[in-house]
Amino acid sequence: MSTIHWTTGDTQQSARRHSENAAPLPRRTVVADDRMKAGDAYRRACEGTALLWQGDFHNARQLLQAMSRRIDRKTPRPSTSLSESFHLHRRSSSHRARVLGKLLVLLDDDYRLALRRAPDVRQACLEAYGPPKGPMAVSLRELLGVIGAHQWRSKGVDVPALGTRIHPHYGVFAPVRGEYVDLVAHTPLPPAALHSPDTSTAFDLGTGTGVLAAVLARRGINRVAATDISPRALACAGENAHRLAPTDRIEVSGPGLFPEGRADLIVCNPPWLPARPTSPVEQGVHDPDSTMLHGFLTGLSAHLRPGGEGWLVLSDLAERLGLRTRRQLLDAIHAAHLRVVDKIDTKPRHPRSKDVADPLHTARSAEITSLWRLTA
């Protein structure tokens, strides 16, 4: 939390400013309303000025869209490689977040949004931010994400492998890409788990919504220990496990990577891109220096029971973007004294793989997601 200051008439006012991506404080804050033109708003935002909106809610959304279109007009220079395309895309996304994040709205001390034609956002904010602690300014872009997350949480995400829905929380990566879930749902279980089904144990590292833990429990694993470093993910996984797991087979714990003890099966679906996340939800996709990947590999042998397997679910998108090589991955597996038993591949089915307008379309359309079966 930090504080912004602005003037209304002759009155100096202030409020706490909350930013999920830890955006720096604006240079100054001015009041904006329905008279604000998109060009003026865009120019001020680029200069570092925050616009505290006090007009109509729907007009604020339209202004945000108009500012976004002005960003889109800035055509990036042609790239010579997929790696350069990725870095240009990240730079453009960062610029977009920085500029659009300057349009702010003020939430009252009960999360009420006192704007004309504003929706009731109290429940959505309570789910995302927890109990209110007084008035708070947030970017309209972030608030729209909070509203969208509330809708996702209420509706849920259909998971065919479970025959039901998973309900993601705000800031927790939703299982919208079913191919990695299907890999875990259909790969044969290791002999160690099959021989002793009544005592079989699995770990789901970086559980997120708990979807893979639920799949393993549905497959007959007697006990599934699910971990994560995110408090939001732990709460989300715990809620989904309580609703989905038969006879409370799933135990959620953390923050941390490995739980105590050993398991017949240890599953890890780490973030696929070795890059710095710029928001909480990006932590499900970006892993600086492949920290979680290496943590899983180096700790796997010490936590496997005899005859057990580690399942690494990983996309080759990082390789196609020049962020990691296959040799580096294999060297890391070898350095951890692990052996590759098998590798099961699947192609992407998500819409972005078919979006030719995506600057990373060439890599996404050829992407392969693999389940690597590893033993000590």
CATH homologous superfamily title of the largest domain: Vaccinia Virus protein VP39
- Residues in helices, as a percent range: 25-40%
Radius of gyration: 23 Å
Task: Give the low-pLDDT segments.
Answer: none
Class by alpha and beta content: alpha/beta
Helix tally? Answer: 13
Taken from the alpha-carbon principal axes, the silhouette is globular
End-to-end gap: 46 Å
CATH topology of the largest domain: Rossmann fold
What is the second-level CATH architecture of the largest domain? Answer: 3-Layer(aba) Sandwich
Sheet with most strands: 7 strands, mixed
Order of helices and strands: EEEHEHHEHEHEEHHEHEHEEHEHHEHE
Sheet-strand content, in percent, reads 15-25%
Q: Write down the domain tally.
A: 2
Overall average residue pLDDT = 91
How many DSSP-defined strands? 15
**CATH class placement of the largest domain:** Alpha Beta
- Biggest sheet, spatial arrangement of strands: 11-10-9-12-13-15-14
Organism: Streptomyces macrosporus
Keywords: Methyltransferase, Transferase
GO biological process, one term: methylation
GO molecular function, one term: methyltransferase activity
